[in-house]
Amino acid sequence: MKTENAALMQATPDSSLLRSLESVSFPTLGHFMEDGFADHHLRAMVPNVKVIGRAVTLKLLSPDAIPVNRALSQLKPGDVLVIDMSGNHTHAPVGAVTACAALNAGARGVIVDGVVTDLLELRSTGLPVFARGTSLLTTKKRDTMSSLFNEPVICGGVVVRPGDIVLADDNGVLFAEAPALAAVIDMAQASDRAEPAILARLNDKAPLQEVLQCVMP
C-alpha cells in the first residue's frame, strides 16, 4: 500500500506547476522539448481553447460505445479523457452526449486518436475536443469487453500514461510527465516574457540580424 501511495503522489502533477503552465504559451515549450508532441493531424474541433489536465486513458479494441460510457463515469474534475482507437479512424466514439457527460463530470477535455461526430453540438458545449476529423459513423452499444482502461495507450504517436499532463490548444497536443515540464518551465516563461520586446524591436524596424540572432522561431 505504501508503494502504491508513493507512486500515486509522484504521478499527481504539482499544483504550482499546473499554475505555471496556465501562464505559458504552449508553443514556447516546443523551443525546449522534443518528445511528447502528438501527430499534427490531431487538432482542435472546438476552436480557441487551452487545455491543461491529467490523462485518463482508454484503449478501444473494437468500435464499442459501452467502454466509453464506463470511462466517462470514472472521470473527475481536472481529467482529460484520452482515447486510443487502435487505428480505427472511421467510427466516432465521442459526440454530443458523451461530450456533455464529460463536461458535467468536470473534465478539462477529450482527445480522440480518431474521429468524432456532432461537430456543431460539440462546439456549443464549449468542451475542448481534439480529434483527427469527423464522421457520421459511430461506435455501437455492443459491450464486447474489448477495451483497456487507465493503462498506457498510444495517442497521436505518443505513449500516454494515466496521470500524464495533457497540454493542448489550437496549435496541437502535448503529453508529458511532470518532471519533464518542470525542467523547462522557467526557461519557457522567460522566453515568453522576452517576446514582446522582440516584437516591438521588429516593428520599430530594428536590423533583423541583430534582433533574430538569438531568437527562437
From TrEMBL:
Cofactor requirement = Mg(2+); a divalent metal cation
Recorded hits in PANTHER family, A to Z, give: 4-HYDROXY-4-METHYL-2-OXOGLUTARATE ALDOLASE 3-RELATED
Q: Which residues bind Mg(2+)?
A: 118
UniProt cross-references to InterPro entries, sorted A to Z: RraA/RraA-like, RraA/RraA-like_sf
Species in which this protein is naturally found: Paraburkholderia aspalathi
Q: Name one GO molecular function term.
A: metal ion binding
Name of protein: Putative 4-hydroxy-4-methyl-2-oxoglutarate aldolase
Q: Which Gene3D superfamilies match?
A: Ribonuclease E inhibitor RraA/RraA-like
**Pfam families xref list:** RraA-like
User: Which keywords, in A-to-Z order, does the entry hold?
Assistant: Magnesium, Metal-binding
Answer yes or no on keyword Coiled coil: no
KW Magnesium (keyword) present? yes
